Amino acid sequence: MVDNSRQKGVNMTKRALFVLLVATMPLLAQQNPDWHREFPAFKIAGNLYWVGTADLAVYLINTPQGNILINSNFPEDVPLIKKSIESLGFKYGDTKIILASHAHGDHDAAVGIIKNETAARLMIMDMDVPETESTRQGRPGAKVDRILHDGDTVELGDSKLIAHKTPGHTKGCTTWTMQVDDAGRKLNAVIIGSPNVNRGYILVGNKDYPQIADDYVNTFKVLNTLPVDLFLGAHGAYFGLKAKYEKMKAGGPNPFIDPAGYKAYVSEREATFLKELERQKKNPGSPAP
Ligand SMILES: [Zn+2]
Q1: Strand partners, 48
Q2: Per residue of the chain (289 residues), what is the pLDDT tens digit?
Q3: How many angstroms does the Cα of residue 104 sit away from the middle of ligand 1?
Q4: Which of 71, 73, 257, 280 has a CA positioned 20 to 30 A from the CA of residue 36?
Q5: What is the distance in A from the centroid of ligand 1 to the CA of 194?
Q6: Ligand 1 midpoint to CA 106 (Å)
């Protein structure tokens, strides 16, 4: 009996360690130098701007009533975001609303800082709210001012964004869409929340998130039906930020208008998810590599 309960204890400790490891993975992965590397702020199209780092996306939507920011990155990235906003001639203090792609530290760890420094309202998809507000496992936590649901709109000035719940990567992972008026041309912007199955994710028999696989399936259905002109996402790597930025500087048609690239990316990510799902169905309990 003693040995048995001791073994149980060891298993539980192992499990707790594993859970901790998975939960802090975005923090451990801070080593990716592009995450904190400065990148020039620039206009993507219309009133939509890039103010993120060389990989972590932060979008600024400028309106006559102030600005919306999507994502905050890590606290250490906030000075770069401020610098980017100011370099475009906007004011950090004019941030009225802050949104997020999903509740992982690389996108939302600094939302509380930005909220406090600017008095912006924080709006987060329902199922990501507990994570955003949590102070567990080193997360800073931030009070959510408005809880969003699938299909909700966020409006400021003349801009309207739609929150599409695209869960799986997190339970409240959000893909943002908006119509951008680019010199009289209406462009559909899609900012993908994340279609990725991270290392350690369990798709089959996941006790904490039983519907995870179905959520991914539905997410790909949504991503496959959205009208797209501007292909964007939570990481620059999703849509080839650096190469497109260089192309843009060289002139010619806007390289971020890339519906074919979007389709190819979503198809490839969907195939990768389905392959991993099949692998886990054959090896239940085996986490994603
Ligand atoms: Zn993530």
Answers
A1: 45, 61
A2: 333 444 444 444 444 444 444 444 444 444 688 999 999 999 999 999 999 999 999 999 999 999 999 999 999 999 999 999 999 999 999 999 999 999 999 999 999 999 999 989 999 999 999 999 999 877 888 999 999 999 999 999 999 999 999 999 999 999 999 999 999 999 999 999 999 999 999 999 999 999 999 999 999 999 999 999 999 999 999 999 999 999 999 998 999 999 999 999 999 999 999 999 999 999 988 999 9
A3: 5
A4: 257
A5: 7
A6: 7
